[in-house]
Amino acid sequence: MGAITRLSLDIGEKTTLASTQPIIAECLASGEWVKRYAGYMLFGLIAEPCADSLKKNLDEAIKTASKGIQDENARVRYTSLIAMAMLFANLGPAVQYKYHAELMPVLIKLMLEEPLVKMQAQATSAMLNFVTGLTNEDEDEKDESKNVVSPQELMKNYSKGLLQALVVLLKKGIQEKYEPLTTEVLALISTVAHVITSDFAEYYNDFMPLMTEILTNVGTKTMSEKNLRAKAIDSIGSMIIAVSDSENADKFHGSVVEVTQHLTNLLKGKLEDDDPQDEAIKDTLT
Questions:
Q1: What tens digit of pLDDT does each residue of 12-45 get?
Q2: Residue 141: in which H helix or E strand, if any?
Q3: Kind plus residue range of the DSSP H or E element containing 185
């Protein structure tokens, strides 16, 4: 699939749109789920090479992706979430600022209510791109968005519902040992903590026991396990940085000391050179 994106970058935006738009339109209008699936996949793949044109037609781009996440077929919803995530990554922060009121409640609902855990993981991944895209501001967009609220202020409208959802999903990922969901949730926790900074203090005690549970119960035999533990350690670091800026930073002192000591002991255990925990611990302790 990456070959389509690379080819599109090579032939240029104008040619890509001229050749793909009729195909996408035909696929998305089809009564066959497999064709709608293919249409959303192609739509997502051209998001990067056609970003300039899509930015000029944000309404149409978001309307197209939003229709897909309401499709009756789970496979189509899955692919449309991938497409939407690509829009968030390549059209941010304009798309986030313009459509947050419409998109955030829908994405949070999908994260919680999709019956398939794989779908919940993909909805969480789309949300990760949404929040990350808030801070991906290029020079041309700075002047356009200088009078809007900051990412922190925007996220205040949604942080409570989002973080409550992430507590539920992290518990589910841990209990069902479904690493894709757990990994996406951990990455999103880190990103949200970075964006809302001291406002994260309210939720610190909801997440830290779950981080400790991961480090206590997840083994270190496979690289997959090591990567998951490293993700949890990265999240711990982001959480500590966030609460250190809060007015009540002192009340977290005991927990931070305890976690720091645990990570120090892990580091003293002589981790292997290719163990991602090594770098994650050093970054967190720094």
A1: 778 888 889 999 999 999 999 999 999 999 999 9
A2: helix 139-145
A3: helix 179-196
Read off the tokens for 255. 């927990």
Q: How far apart are CA 197 and CA 243, in angstroms?
A: 7
pLDDT on residue 140: 52
Q: What does the block give as tokens for 125?
A: 């991944």
Helix residue ranges per DSSP H, 146-178: 151-156, 159-176
pTM of the model: 0.92
Among the listed residues 203, 131, 125, the one whose alpha carbon sits nearest the alpha carbon of residue 164: 203
**Letter string b/e over residues 13-22, b meaning 16 or more CB atoms within 10 A of that residue's CB:** beebbeebee
DSSP line for 67-111:
HHTT-SSHHHHHHHHHHHHHHHHHHTTHHHHHHHHHHHHHHHHHH
pLDDT at 147: 46
d(CA 154, CA 175): 32
Query: Rounded to an integer, what distance in angstroms lies between the CA atom of residue 133 and that of residue 107?
Result: 15
| pLDDT tens per residue, range 243-280 | 998 888 889 999 999 999 999 998 888 788 889 999 99
Q: Which of 102, 101, 104, 27 is nearest to 71 (CA)?
A: 27
**Residue 138's pLDDT is what?**
56
Amino acid occupying residue 233 = I
User: How is the chain split into domains, by residue range?
Assistant: 144-286
Q: Which of 106, 109, 105, 87 is nearest to 96 (CA)?
A: 87
CA angle 102/57/69 to nearest 5° reads 40
C-alpha to C-alpha distance for 42 and 17, rounded to whole angstroms: 11
